[in-house]
# Entry
Amino acid sequence: FRSVKMSLSSNALCAKAKAMYGGRLNKNVYLDLTRKQTIGEVVSYLKSQTSYADALKDINIRHVHRGQIEDCLNQEYYHRCAKLMKYSPKSDEDFYLFEIIGVEINLIMDKLVSLQAKEQYSFNLSIPTYLAKKTSFNIDGLVNIESFKDLLQYLSKTRYYKVLKEIDFSVPFDVKEVHMCLQSLYYENIVETIKKHFKGSVQKDLLNILYTSIELKNISKIYRYKQYFHESEDSIRSSLFLQYSRLPKDMMNRLISASGPKEVLSLLSTSKYNFYMDDKEFAYIEYYADSIQYNIAKRYMRFSNSAPLVYMTYCILQRIEIDNLKHIIEGIRYNQPVSKIENTLIYA
# Structure
């Protein structure tokens, strides 16, 4: 009976995810949006012509604030993920809550930065009620915390305490290093959860998607360091999660020691990832990385009937759609040519 119930739950999640993916924004919608003259026109179009009407219902198109729009889009992302979580088997709930750990880490980092700067930042805690009930601590409680000591005490029963207790908060701390430690905890948790709940090809495919995502973040970091900073090879290496690398060790070493961004791109053109490049003009490193993830996720979304795979890939595809909208809004705000905005978009 339990296996039948899990099967029905998995089938329902797959059906729901594929239906939601079927309502994604298409090429014609994106082209219409890139030709709008103002951000207000973009919001008006999204309200009247797309499934984002409810997400943007409180936005006044006469007084549009970019930050408010992005907050609404981020909330919509979590709202859509939460819709699918409701169909997930209870026995595998730990896996389907991986997005919540990301939310918690972002809020903790925001709090740490605000405490170090001695400024009370305004937190945007608006996530769907369903997700709020699943967090490992009451996120609203972060608002009134006024010291590092109070924060440590508040998080003493969570997975984050083992990272935070090692930090010397009596002196200014390295924000990037702390975030790196928390991000490492995030990846370790997802890997452990996948290995605990899934076996065989499902486990292999989930880890492949995850490791590829991490490796693409590593590659993006390397490129940005070469393009904008003059960090040492040791400094670059220490900022990467190389334990999840899929590229040969020799290739990663060559990327890290590359003389500049052009050499990084030249090396990547000979790697396995070149297969996924499309015929668009290269726009920026994040476009390259997201394009690869998009193509991998799209394939699983279309052909897989595995609930965890469909869920993970839906999250990737939905995040890319949200990022597309952000790129359009940013491009219009800064009066960029339509062709330049179009080259930042990723879609089928």
